[in-house]
Amino acid sequence: MVNPACISNNMAGNCVCCESSSNCLHSPASNCTSALQQLSKRLLSLLLTAGVLLGLRLWMLRGSSPAFSDQDNPASFSPHLITRVLTFCYLPALNFWLLLCPWQLSHDWQMGTVPLVNSFADSRNLASLVFYTTLAMIVCRALQTSKVGGYDGGRVTRMGLALLVLPFLPATNIFFRVGFVLAERILYIPR
C-alpha cells in the first residue's frame, strides 16, 4: 500500500514514493513541499515580470492598442473573409518553409510581397494542406508514441512541437491583428 503522504514528482526527481514511511530514505513530503514552493516562486516571478512588462507597454502606448495600416498587413484588412482565412492559413506554411529553406528572405514583408490567397483554386492552398496534414500526422504520432528502451520519443516530439508552435501563435493573426505579414525574426530568434 502506498503511503498517501508520499507524493511522486517525476519531473523534479526529488520526490520519492514508497510503500511505507519506515522504508523512505528521504522525507518525500518535505521534498515535494520544497519543490512546490520553488515552482510557486518561479511562477510568481514570471507572472510579476510579465505584468510589469505589459504595464510598461501600455504606459508607452498611453493605454491604446497599436495602430496598423493595410500596408503593414494587407490580409488582416481584406474585406473578404475567405481571403483572410486562406491567407492566414497559408502564412504559417510559408513561415515553416522559410525556416527549412531560408533562400528568399526580406527585410520587410509588407505591401503585397506575399500576394493574398483569394480563392480555393489558388495553388498555394496545396502548400497549406500539405503543411497542416503533416503537422496533424506529427501530433498524432507524438501522442501515440510509447516509451521504448527508456527513451520516450513522444515526449521529446511533444516538447519540440510545443517550443515551435506555442511561441509562434501570437504572430499568426488568430488572436489579434499584428503589424506584419511575415517576419523571419519570429522564426530564428529564440523565444
Automatic annotation (TrEMBL):
PANTHER family for this protein: PROTEIN O-MANNOSYL-TRANSFERASE TMTC1, PTHR44809
* Residues passing through the membrane, by range: 43-61, 81-105, 126-144, 164-183
InterPro entries given in the database record: TMTC_DUF1736, TMTC_O-mannosyl-trnsfr
Asked if the Swiss-Prot or TrEMBL record annotates the protein with the keyword Transport, the reply is no
Every DUF1736 domain range = 63-135
Name the species this protein comes from.
Hyalella azteca
Q: Which keywords belong to this entry? A: Membrane, Repeat, TPR repeat, Transmembrane, Transmembrane helix
Question: What protein name does the entry list?
Answer: Protein O-mannosyl-transferase TMTC1
